[in-house]
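Forwarding these from the shared drive since the link keeps breaking.
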Amino acid sequence: MKLILEHWRKFLAEEDTRYDKDGNVLPPLPPEHTTAIEEAGVVLKRFLGEGKMGKVYEVENPKTGQRMAAKVVSKWTPQYYSESKNYNWILKNRDGLPDDVKEYVVDVYKLFESSNNKYLVILMELLKPAPKSVVNQIFGS
């Protein structure tokens, strides 16, 4: 539980430093990610996290002020093919899903291929962590 709450605290504190699972500081993000995100037409705000499929950033549409998540996936990897297929399916089919299912599927706004042909940028709904009161109820404070 401490690990979950620690990640939640770091998210709310909007720290830009990346940490591994043991709390060690990770190296800076690849500058190519910043370029790919900017090419997608959004402004990088901060790093959110990373997993097996890619790195996720909070971004903002400079025209509308809308905050979103941008997942950056390296192309020409098994993860790229999986993520591209899955998010394209969501982009095309989410609106046709039953309402009771749709609420559990993230909104996908745009898939963008970087000009250097190295990255897929997936712009999607930015999910916020649950309020502390909800987390306390779930984990029994």
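-- next protein --
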Amino acid sequence: MSDCYDTAQICLNGHVINDNFHKFPAQNADHCSKCGEPTIVQCPSCKSEIRGSYEVEGVGGSGGGCQGPAFCHKCGKAYPWTEKRLQAAKQLADEYDELSNDEKEKLKGSLDDLVRESAMTEVAGLRFKKIMKKVGKESYDGMKSILTNIASEALKKTIFGP
């Protein structure tokens, strides 16, 4: 064996079932025990295995506590849980009565850039913070809850604080 990733088994809502699918098959499950959704081990778009625990020869895995990736490392498409969270965030934005229709559209347009680390991520983060100041704490907390699992660590600190 050489250094490599094991495969992760993740439900369609993004709950990691097993980040060592091949190494510890006894932990595999067809459905999630948290939400009941089916589990997958491959990208639905390109069929590449989802990266799980990184195994280093002679050291063992980094397993345990793996968070599912937001995008496929092979084709770059969003995984189903990322798509579901983005759709939920966009639907939630439509519920913010405190925002004008223009602000809602700007917020929804920024969400895709918030979950990707790109040149537009910082701009989207600043726009997000500016717009979210207009909604109440409950609305802010709802959006934070949806985005926390798919945003990068750096972005989480930028838009949600430490």
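The mean pLDDT is 89. DSSP finds five helices and six strands in the chain.

- D.
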